[in-house]
Amino acid sequence: MHEITFSTVDKPKLLSQLTSLLAELGLNIQEAHVFSTVDGYSLDVFVVDGWPYEEVVQLRAALEREISRKEKSWPTPSQSLKKQEQDLIKSEFDHLTIPFDGIDVWEIDHQLLKFEYKIASGSYGDLYKGTYCSQEVAIKILKSERLNAELQTEFAQEVYIMRKVRHKNVVQFIGACTRPPNLCIVTEYMSGGSVYDYLHKQRGSFKLPTLLKVAIDVSKGMNYLHQNNIIHRDLKAANLLMDENEVVKVADFGVARVKAQTGVMTAETGTYRWMAPEVIEHKPYDHKADVFSFGVVLWELLTGKIPYEYLTPLQAAIGVVQKGLRPTIPKHTPLKLAELLETCWQQDPTSRPDFSAIVDILQQIAKEVCVFCSGIDQLTIICCR
């Protein structure tokens, strides 16, 4: 057993690059601890086994060689984009150029935005409640001090995708400011907040009929995205927002991608607790990765718990890939809903259903609930596990 510590400048995808590096050396990660500083540095500590030699010097030398090799092979943001994505971001004069494709003009004058208060804050940006031309909006603004080529690429990708989508279960894109340092995306304001906050911060819960409505809303939004060849890649409760009418909409397309012509993609993204095993393993993947994540979201709705809450994200990821770990389905779960969870979590992506089928299954369960719900405990109306 060995403990390996990496200290480096923090950057997107750093953790996945380090875990991949260790895997290349045949090391098995038993524990992982990640610390980030406010000034942009990261300390990543791994406890590993699988090194066949006693000498630590040999391990250090092997790590140094692998790091040197990886640094040469790790693509820069411009290298990693296919031709379609290479056209998404170009620095011309003082703004980012995102190709025009016949869609209405969406560039917003930053001076017309009025910021009211901060909703949330992250490493790379802040989310504000504000107004634009008297309309209530949400404003996601990138932190100018953290701007780099990769972050600008993701920003351009998000704008490129969001301006194309129009669906009642997808958060409505209003416009964007593409003139650095004021890079921001403006969307409709969702007054109900995120499903994650409702479940985990407000300690709310959904009765079965409402739970099914939420799941159907999400499934319809995801089905629309997949029909338009968009893979979300980071589907989780925190990226599901509720409006004043309790309509749930899919949000946050910062890491979404237009599906490649081959139908599969590589390189990890997303959040480990919700991530499909093929994505964790850096294998080729397609839209079925979103289906796996949806299964975890559905479990969240049922339990009100964070997936694998007693494990670190990396421990959960290792369990999902190496041991077939999945969240425990509650005993009171209706049989058809439990079966849906299990099919969404299949290790083989081809065995998972499409969202069109998921919508049909959920609507059928909702009809059965509606028929029998009067005067009966909603959680026992269907034959349970």
Task: Please characterize this protein's 3D structure.
The protein has helices spanning about 15-25, 55-75, 75-80, 85, 150-160, 195-200, 210-225, 275-280, 290-305, 315-320, 335-345, 355-370, and strands spanning about 1-10, 30-35, 40-50, 90, 95, 115-120, 125-130, 135-140, 175, 185-190, 195, 230, 240, 250, 255-260. Helices cover about 35% and strands about 20% of the residues. Strand 13 and strand 14 form a beta hairpin. The strands form 5 sheets. Strands 6-7-8-10-9 form a 5-stranded antiparallel β-sheet. The chain is an alpha+beta fold. It is built from 12 helices and 15 strands. Helix 7 (about 210-225) packs antiparallel against helix 9 and helix 9 (about 290-305) packs antiparallel against helix 11.
